[in-house]
From TrEMBL:
Family label: Belongs to the polysaccharide deacetylase family.
Job description of the protein: Is involved in generating a small heat-stable compound (Nod), an acylated oligomer of N-acetylglucosamine, that stimulates mitosis in various plant protoplasts.
SUPFAM superfamilies xrefs: Glycoside hydrolase/deacetylase
The protein, known as: Chitooligosaccharide deacetylase
């Protein structure tokens, strides 16, 4: 699932009007400690690449599903860091990662 050129134009227009973008996974899959590595990569890393490609700008905030916080899933947290996210937003707070 990549961002279509038409959808990318809509993203860029919304950004130009001041909207904020973050990643919230690629397929809205819950990321549990036992989630396979390829699924974690797709939901965390590929989602970032696709949004950035469509947006034409970097996205530095990730939002775990169901308001999870940094530290609850160390494998997913490591991929969030490796992907270059700087912030993690949960239902409870915004956490600065880098």
């Amino acid at each position: 699932m990549s961002v279509s050129p038409c959808h990318g134009a809509s993203l860029r227009d919304a950004k130009a009007r001041g909207h904020f973008f973050s990643c919230h996974s690629r397929n809205h899959t819950a990321l549990h400690p036992d989630t396979p590595e390829d699924i974690l990569y797709d939901e965390i890393v590929v989602s970032k690449q696709e949004i950035e490609d469509g947006l034409g700008a970097s996205v530095d905030t990730f939002c775990y599903l169901y308001g999870a916080e940094y530290g609850l899933n160390p494998r997913a947290d490591e991929l969030v860091m490796q992907a270059g996210y700087r912030y993690l937003f949960s239902n409870f707070r915004l956490q600065k990662l880098q």
